[in-house]
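FORM 7B - TANDEM STRUCTURE REPORT

SECTION 1: FIRST PROTEIN
SEQUENCE AND TOKENS:
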Amino acid sequence: MSKISDVKAIQVFDSRGFPTISCKITLENQISAFAMVPSGASTGSKEALELRDNNLMYHGKGVFKAISNINNKLASLIIGKDPNNQDEIDKILIDFDGTDDKSSMGANAILAISLASSHVAAKSKDLNLYEHFSEIYSDITGENVNSSLPMPMFNILNGGEHADNNIDIQEFMIVPNGANDFSEIMQWSSEIYHNLKHIIRSKNYSTAVGDEGGFAPNLQSNEEALELIIESIQKSNLIPGGDVNIALDCAASEFFDGSNYFFRGENKKYSSSELVNYFENLITKYPIISIEDAMDENDFDGWKLITEKLGNRCQLVGDDLFVTNEKIFLDGVSKNIANSILIKFNQVGTITETIKTIFSARKNNYKTIISHRSGETEDTTISDLAVGLGVAQIKTGAPCRSDRIAKYNRLLWIENEGTNILLNE
């Protein structure tokens, strides 16, 4: 394969209007490709470090330091390398940084190169990106994987850090797992989403949207949000709990004070055990099949309790808990907490580490969900990653806003053009 001849990074902007990095890699044969890095708002404390300038420009959110690290330090390390050797490139970047959290060069700088390398390698081989990811997975893990289309979780009602409203639970998602194919998934989700808008408007609530495209009204309680979603599913002539289920992302670390969980919107306080009982009541009353970050990332007793009590009834997803880090994840496995892991490649910083974490989760019978971040771009890498690695689920926001829709549209094209790529069961 033609070797890398040039690496160039510039500052671009994410869906919240904050700076992020775009990196372009060019090969000796003049084939080039670029990728863009996402950014999160609700972040785990153990995530790899997103390097920001922290000066007066862009409210401190500039990424010129990270870009300088790419253009003036990291680029020379991989020029002359084969982009198809993803693990070699990622190891060079990790070793040069030399820190556990990539704080020297910045995880955003390292990820930008890692992503761009995968894009240009796929392009040079005239492969779809998801096909290339399947090959990388096999190279890194020694095992083959069947490509498949993931089941989306559509975040149609936003709260927490993703919206300026009084809802404490961060994401209320629909999971149309009764649909027959991805096209029908998109039809159902679009119809439910627009019916929800009409219902919210009929109650004289705001139909403004949050960071991920879900509506963000002020409501009386978290349960009112669930009731609105149930009504919107029924108005779409679909069956709650049959055609369409519900998933939650609580982002509990955002309302944990070190001792108790405080729902400010409802002025209610819960101990860990009381919060577990609260969730037990919710999944009994509503068709909730998945709860993400139900407890604080350091509340291991709470995680153990909810796993023991609800783990056989509900998917319990660790996001802030595991931050896509294989070592942290395996520590959680040893504690018997959660039964699923959210995968966000900017939490760990490279494609190689992301793949290793997914492989480790599979070996330990944990479900995996590929996820976007609240600060997104038009980059659709996660769609190809989910398909190429055969990951069963994907989170990438509401069926609204181009930064979210781009990922769904990419999956529609993969369904349309892919040979024997079916919905993951």
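SECTION 2: SECOND PROTEIN
SEQUENCE AND TOKENS:
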Amino acid sequence: MTLIKAVLFDFDRTLLDRDASVSIFVATQYERLKASLSHIPKERYISRFIELDDRGYVWKDKVYTQLVDDFMIKGVSGEQLLEDYESEFHKSCIPYPNLLEMLEQLKRAQVQTGIITNGHGEFQLRNIQALGIDDYVNVILISEWEGIKKPDPEIFLRALARLGVRGEEAMYIGDHPINDVQASRRVGMKAVWKTDSQWEAPKEADGTISDLLDIPDLLNRFNRTELKS
């Protein structure tokens, strides 16, 4: 009998509502730097950023270089736009509903928690801290600081080792079928897909959630099944 003792999460599009956060950030960036951007319609600036960003899979140095070229931006460089992104984005971070309530339930149940996310170290840490979840998360692994990134199984194994649990004693929640679902299953974890219209539902997922409050119930179901077996 193996009970799940730890729940680990992806960050972007799992805990952080990245689409909402990006929209807020780009709108506020436009207002902050309006002296240099006012020749561009605000909605056009926002939509082009979102298009170039490609759901976060294109780093912003390339995004801003292209924006400067597309809109012939003067008075502010791509490097300055990038610096503004790096220093200000965390102020626009929006969690998915019920984040703190879900984490509080896991904490009361004495379940350990962690985050495994690809991204730049300081940038991602500021975003995580912006959601006010520091007191709930036992370990945070960010790919830049680890020197490896999902779907490499080593980053999952490191998280498990730091929590002191085996793969079969942990559950992982994420939106990406390969980086999250396939990768976590490969090291023996229960893999739960957080629904995202960008992807087809991965057939190998052990469970699916659309709301963060589904997680404690899913955890209880897994553990009840183990107790009966």
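SECTION 3: OBSERVATIONS ON SECOND PROTEIN
The radius of gyration is 19 Å.
The first helix runs from residue 18 to 32.

SECTION 4: SIGNATURE
Preparer initials: ____
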